[in-house]
Every structure is written in structure tokens, then in C-alpha cells.
Amino acid sequence: MSFEEMWAALLPVGRDAGTGGYHRFAWTPPELECRAWFLDEARRRDLAVERDRNGNLFAWWDPDGTRGGAVLTGSHLDSVPGGGAFDGPLGIVSAFAAVDLLRERGVRPARPIGIAAFAEEEGARFGVACLGSRLLTGAISPERARGLRDRDGRAFADVIAEHDLDPALIGPDEDLLGRVSCYVELHVEQGRALAEPVGVASAIVPHGRWRFGFAGEGNHAGTTLLEDRRDPMLPFARMVLAAREAAGRHGTLTTVGRVEVVPNGVNAIPSEVTAWLDGRGPADDAVRRTVAEVHEAARDAAREHGVAVELAEESYSPVVDFDTALRDRVAAALGGAPVLPTGAGHDAGILAARLPTAMLFVRNPTGVSHAPEEHAEPADRLAGVEALTAVLGDLAGG
Ligand code: HGY
Ligand code: MN
Ligand code: MN
Ligand code: MN
């Protein structure tokens, strides 16, 4: 199957016909359909397929059966709610297309080439970003992961058990990591910095997620006087505004989402509000100060309204500076390419703690991501495949 044929096959999966946004949450039917597509494409190419103990998928091209020193590429299949078509899948479709090109050109890699589809990269179902690659590398404890719950209250352990994964076995896989020499991820650009079709990543800025829980007192909207209310909506509202104000003060970026209101009626004062804060910025201390100021504002407002507030840090990734030797080698394999940082997190950022890691970005003319307008032109997609082919051919030798 050509790139465009693979792309056409994936495009409708999990896509909302009305908004054009994608809803491919880990272990839900659309994402399972994408997983099946991944396995089909791997088998079509006689690649050895592997699912690790955490549910990450791998397809290996290992003509000499050496198993070791593999060059791994790939990305993720899951999406944010209402996400774009390219964030994740572009890296995987491009990887299969790059293997095809290498074979067409008679390349027999001296090292195995692997294609990964990491599970729950967006954290859209269980809240923690890059859950699959965090488990693989030991960046999250299996105990904590087992207890993570989705928005229906279902535990991660129970969900993966339905897919023949043993929750007792999730966690680092040193054998698998030991078979990999480096990881190169191709991803759609999530911004508008690229003037050329393909760029190379220099770094990922610090970013994290914090869960705010506001507990008040549910009551009747029509019979509870203002002075008798303990309405969690009010400190929540203050938290949202404080997030924007603090970001402005510290040059950071804050976003509030994944809001749950209980019971979320119109004529019932809520008893609880849960809201997640996504915080990112140029430096750790700027992000930390931003979150601290949001927390302080939320606490003050909670006190004023007789509401309890709880803050939990769900995930935090300090700045990732990609391996400079690999970065420069990748740029050289492309005959030179723009080098740029990103404000988006990636599995590559998690794997960078364990392996030399690099990223390629494919130009996005809209600059929009995590929304249906995310885009990459066909010519740029093919430029991305050519770039990945050159990089894999260089790194895997042969
Ligand atoms: O949220 C992110 O930064 C990434 O797109 N997962
Ligand atoms: Mn994303
Ligand atoms: Mn992504
Ligand atoms: Mn009533």
C-alpha cells in the first residue's frame, strides 16, 4: 500500500463527520481499529509484530535476525478529543512508507528497523500523557498506572485486562529497550515555524499537567441563599482566570480542560468540580511559579466560598534537549534542515531519558494542532517520507 492508500484507509477511523475532529482514545473501538490497521500493515510487509507488556505495538524489519541495535521510529495512534488527523498517525504511516522505499531501493539494513505505536500518548483517556512510553521506560510506577481512571471511572488495570494484558506485569521492559540503539520520531509540526517541508527538533519545553479538585456542597439552585452556598464553581472560575493571568506574568502557556462537574445539572449547585491545568513554558521555574500562583488563587477563592481544594501533579516533563550528535546526524542526512524547539510533548521526549532520540517535523501550513484544521500538504508528507527514509537508511546502515 502506498502512503496515500494507507492514509486514506486510516482517515475515516474515529473521525466525527460533523466537526472533522478525531476521537481515538486508548482501548476504545476507533483506537482498536487503528491498532488492527497497524498490525495489518506490518504483516503485509512481513514485519515481526510485537505487543509489549504495556500495550505498545512494534513492527520489526530485521532481515539478518540480529535483534539488537535497532533503529526505532514510529509515533502514536491515539488522539486528543476532537484532534487532527496527523498528530501521531503521520509518523506511523510515514514509517511504513519509508520501509517500502528502502526495500524498493534495495537497501538491506545492517541493523533492525522498528516501527512503534505507543499507547495513550495524549493521555486523553487516563489523563497521563505518554502513558505507554512512560511505562516502558519506568517514567511512571506500575502501581500508579494501574489505578489511573478514565472519565467513566474505569481503572486502567481493568481496561487493559480486557485486552489480554496482565496488569501485574506492566512496567519497564529492559529487554526491549536493550534491543534499541536510537529512536527517531516523525511528527506533524504543531505550530507555524517551518518555511521548509521538514525540520529537525532541538528540544521540548518543560510541560506538565495538574488536577484541581474543588469540593463544596450540592444543593438546590432555587432555595439556597447565596450566603448559604458552598459552590465549587466559583473557585474553579477563579482558577481559570488566574491561569491566564499567571501565564501572562511568567511568559508561560496555561490551558484548563478535562472539566468534570458533579452532578452537572442546571438547577443543582454542584458538589464537586474537577479541572486539569496544562502548563508549559521556556523554563522549569517559570512553569512552577505559574502553577503555584494558580494554586494560591484557587485556594483563596476556595476559602472565601467554604470549598475544599485539592491539587495533584499528574505528570511533569522537564526540558528535553535532544541528543545533539543524533540531531546533527539527522540534519546532515537531510542535507541540512531547520532546527527548532517544540512546545508539544512526545513519546520521543520520554524515550530521550533512555536512548539517543531525535524528531523530524513536517510542515503544517495552518499551524493548528489538536483540532480538525491540523494539516500537512501531500507534497510535504512525501518530503517527510523521503526524509525519514534517508535518516533510517543512514542510521540502520546497509
Ligand atoms: O500534549 C502534547 O503536547 C502532545 O501533543 N501530546
Ligand atoms: Mn498531540
Ligand atoms: Mn503527537
Ligand atoms: Mn425539584
TrEMBL record:
<protein>
    <submittedName>
        <fullName>Allantoate amidohydrolase</fullName>
    </submittedName>
</protein>
<dbReference type="InterPro" id="IPR002933">
    <property type="entry name" value="Peptidase_M20"/>
</dbReference>
<keyword id="KW-0378">Hydrolase</keyword>
<dbReference type="Pfam" id="PF01546">
    <property type="entry name" value="Peptidase_M20"/>
</dbReference>
<comment type="similarity">
    <text>Belongs to the peptidase M20 family.</text>
</comment>
<dbReference type="InterPro" id="IPR036264">
    <property type="entry name" value="Bact_exopeptidase_dim_dom"/>
</dbReference>
<dbReference type="InterPro" id="IPR010158">
    <property type="entry name" value="Amidase_Cbmase"/>
</dbReference>
